Amino acid sequence: TGTLTEGRPAFRELLPAPGWTPDAALALAASVDLGSEHPLAAAIVAEARRRGLALADTLDFAALPGSGVRGRVGAQDVLVGNAALLASVGADPAPFAHAAARHSAAGATVLYLAVDGQAAALIALADPIRASTPAALAAPRAEGLRVIMATGDAEPTARAVAAELGITEIHAGARPEDKARL
């Protein structure tokens, strides 16, 4: 969806798990995301800065393409990424299922924060469609070409964007190597 949208996702909402405040969860997520060049990470960092939150140094930062990022903030192991990344460390995003479905259906990207193997927050980000996208899609369609979407976004998010643009064939949850194969 990144080529169809502005590519500058905006922060929409953070829902903390019990025991977490929104600002504490956002500060940890943004601290780890400082090491990432991904536009989703930039939106999280921008929101933390907008709120004036203090960000901490992250050790052992690793970008996990198609999944998220991980690092160590103080004594805490922190992950920011998709549900599959959380599951890989035994963190359960299920308590956020209703909110995740609501945000995804509205076209938002849903990420999760896990701290020390426990789900700590849901983070929703929205990436508005570029003003030039409808015309850009109309041109190949007018030539009789089939337009498809291949995206790393979750299926509900991809479907929401595709529906807005009249794209009927999507391949969601695609990793970079899946897109290359397609």
In brief:
This protein has 182 residues and is α+β, with helices and mostly antiparallel strands.
Question: Which residues form runs of ≥5 with pLDDT under 50?
Answer: none
Instruction: Quote the beta fraction.
Output: 25-35%
Q: What is the N-to-C succession of helices and strands? A: EHHEEEHHEEHEHEH
Number of helical stretches of at least 4 residues:
7
The radius of gyration is 17 Å
Span between termini: 15 Å
The residue fraction in helices comes out at 25-40%
Please report the total strand number as a whole number.
8
Q: Give the strand order, joined by hyphens, for the main sheet.
A: 1-6-5-4-3-2
Outline the biggest β-sheet.
Answer: 6 strands, antiparallel
Shape from CA axes? elongated
Mean of residue pLDDT? 93
In terms of structural class, how would the helical and strand content be classed?
Answer: alpha+beta
Keywords:
182 residues; 8 strands; elongated; 36% helix; alpha+beta; two-stranded parallel ribbon; 27% strand; single chain; 7 helices
